[in-house]
Amino acid sequence: MTENEILSYITEYGMKAKKAASVLATAAVEKKNQALANAAKLLIEKTQYIIAENTKDIEMAATNGMSVPMQDRLRLTPARIEGMAEGLTQLISLEDPIGAIIEGYKRPNGLEIIKKRVPLGVIGIIYEARPNVTADAAGLCIKSGNACILRGGKEALRSNIAVASVFYEALEQAGLPGDCVQLIDNTDREIATAMMKLNKYVDVLIPRGGAGLIRSVVNNASVPVIQTGTGNCHIYVDSEADKEMAVSIVMNAKTQRPSVCNAAETLLVNEKIAKEFLPVIAAELSTKKVELRCCEFSYDIIKNSDKVIDTSVLRATEDDWDTEYDDLILAVKVVSDYKEAVQHINCYGTGHSEAIITTNYDKARYFQENIDAACVYVNASTRFTDGFEFGLGAEIGISNQKLHARGPMGLKELTTIKYVINGNGQIRG
User: Fold this and answer.
1) Do 213 and 106 belong together in one domain?
2) Environment class of 319 (CB within 10 Å of its CB; exposed 0-12, middle 13-18, buried 19+)
3) pTM of the prediction?
């Protein structure tokens, strides 16, 4: 496509979204909820069709050498589609944020000033091979009164088209414009770049994916960007940790779904329990074939252990502390105490999700107060950093920046404010 053809192509999406957004912004909550109910019902009814399209994507991904954990991110199952539908149903039960009065007051001159929530407008979302994002993003945008333009990765194109078609039908059935949810079916990089500069029609861009995608959007976009985070997440096991609890949490945080952003990437262990704890956790991790990248101290302990460890144990490099693996790989480091753990995390973490395992209240509070991250856990897995788990009805992404939103982004995070001022003839002198 020529430059003009690209501009014409993406502008058409923008114009349709802007027009649809003006309708959705003032739509009754009953209509928005009906659209969500329709979509939830259609997802279940069309499960076999969606899975058939997803299977084509999976087969192509495998042929192209996609890793098994990344294939898992791409894969849709009946249970996962049910989860997508449940997320939409949960959204219906949540309070509509649009029109909510944040505050109101009266000035000495008699002016009544009201601060209220309104939609952002048109939200552009650029994401990788996770077709569940299509449903989550569409549902959240509908409920919060925003039109959305979705651009997924080429690996999930058939899956995304199938899921997006559900929302077009659901919206039309509810008497709302189907163009409230649009999926760009051209995955050329030039199209994505043009979308990043569609300031006239797109109010905000949200990238959702790995570090490379996020960096590309931040560097190329002229549309305002809300960064959703890469997740270099840590578990610190303190000297006063419940060891059984620590094993359970580390295993869950690393192995339940290693390809997601809230999976643990580094394990920090207090030196006082390292010789006891590291062989135990290494043996457990080896049952899931987790490769370990160890500091010198932890490497020596694990290699000299009498536990059966059927996995790769390597010496860590400096790069390992900075890496989001999205795979069955875990960096391991021994630290002197909880304060050194905090220093390490604040140096190498991405501000996403961090956890301490301890029975000591003072250490737990210190950790939570001093870690610079969106979500800081005590005695729980980082895998809970999720809009559905937080009761938000899914999330459009997990922001690890500090402006406009931070952490799982639910309905309120997809709004902005409007001041409404009522007078009776006041003029400024």
Assistant:
1) yes
2) exposed
3) 0.86
Q: How many H helices and E strands in the chain?
A: 15, 16
Q: Are residues 169 and 260 in the same domain?
A: no
User: What CATH number is associated with residue 87?
Assistant: 3.40.605.10
Residues 103 and 154 in one domain: yes
d(CA 38, CA 332): 47
CA–CA dist 322, 429 (Å, integer): 58
Residues with Cβ within 8 Å of 56's Cβ and at least 6 positions away in sequence, in order, are 158
DSSP code of residue 98: T
Q: Kindly state whether residue 389 falls inside one of the protein's structural domains.
A: no
pLDDT per residue as tens, the chain (429 positions): 899 999 999 999 999 999 999 999 999 999 999 999 999 999 999 999 999 999 999 999 999 999 888 899 899 999 999 999 998 999 999 999 999 999 999 999 999 999 999 999 999 999 988 899 999 999 999 999 999 999 999 999 999 999 999 999 999 999 999 999 999 999 999 999 999 999 999 999 999 888 888 889 999 999 999 988 789 999 999 999 999 999 999 999 999 999 889 999 999 999 999 999 999 999 999 999 999 999 999 999 999 999 989 999 999 999 999 999 999 999 999 999 999 999 999 999 999 999 999 999 999 999 999 999 999 999 999 999 988 799 886 788 899 888 888 999 999 999 999 999 999 999 998
Cα angle, residue 262 at apex, residues 260 and 267 outer, rounded to 5°: 110
Segments of 197-303 assigned E as strands: 204-208, 233-237, 264-270, 291-294
CB-count exposure of residue 232 (10 Å: 0-12, 13-18, 19+): buried
Query: Which tokens is 413 given?
Result: 């995070």
**Do 212 and 241 sit in the same domain of this protein?**
no
Tell whether 427 is covered by a domain. Answer: no
User: Does one domain contain both 111 and 184?
Assistant: yes
363 plus 404 within the same structural domain:
no
111 shares its domain with 163: yes
275 falls within a domain = yes
Question: Which stretches within 94-210 are classed as H helix?
Answer: 132-143, 157-173, 189-195
What SS3 class is residue 150? strand
Structural domain contains residue 428: no
The domain tally of the chain equals 2
Tell me which residue range forms the domain holding 371.
233-384
